[in-house]
Amino acid sequence: MRVFVTGASGWIGSAVVPELVQAGHEVVGLARSDASATAIAAAGARVHRGSIDDPEGLAAAAAAADGVVHLAFNHDFSDFVGAGHTERAVITALGDALRDSGKPLLFAAGLLVKPGQVVTENDPTPVSGPDSPRGGGEELALSYAEHGVRPVSLRFAPSVHGDGDHGFIKTLVEVARQRGVSGHVGDGGNRWAAVHRSDAARLVRLALERPPVGGVVHAVDEEAITARDIATAIGRGLDVPVASIAPDDVTDHFGWIGGFFSLDLPASSDVTRETLNWTPAGPGLLDDLATDSYFRDPATIG
Questions:
Q1: What DSSP line would sit under 38-72, residue for residue?
Q2: CA distance 104 to 208
Q3: Global pTM value
Q4: 226: β partners
Q5: What is the pLDDT of residue 299?
Q6: What is the pLDDT of residues 274-293, one digit of tens each?
């Protein structure tokens, strides 16, 4: 299968590309920079130069492929609505290019927020419209099932972890390093789901090869790790105390990530495991936090 991948040199994409290549697929990766192009080529994929701000270029690459895996996203938290508008334009370009083809369109999405409840693959997204989170991209993409496309929402756990992670967990580590304390919000009882990057990449391949009916998969290994346990592991790794941060002080203490770290995001992947015969095998998040990979001082690296 010839597969067009956006975000091919990103944290998840750089694991997905070799997973697909090793399975015998021909991969074409979107590259915005020379560094991305070099990384994509080194992984055994072909390079398509462009960006997610070029809908026509994306559409052309999608039309020439047997399937699309859209993993790129503009994580500009200063203009999250604008980033959502871009995402919606990308989904539209890709979906229209694949219209009436029967080809799969996989796209990255986040888990739903249902405080106090464990989210499942059967829970529909509650958001829609261009000004909603991620531009209402999930609802829009899934609607292309009515137009001859096989869309699959890849709902990734908020913690896709592993050596080299520079996402949410690494950001929390750096906040704790700077503050001299590893914090959690309130009693720290809110929960996060997690998955190792290698398991997430394998799930993407399985969903591409056998797009599930219903179009939603959960890239979730561990269903519910408390924020308190995450903060405790970070405190242990940095040898700093662990403390409760009052809800009113979350933004001052954590910055932009405080709002995310306050969320209750437990999720099940029972349907995904059964449908795709997916069994996560990578280490858990707390196991990863027990190594030094998250705690190397950036000032001493390189």
A1: HHHHHTT-EEEE--TT-HHHHHHHHHTSSEEEE--
A2: 7
A3: 0.94
A4: 191
A5: 57
A6: 999 999 999 999 999 999 99
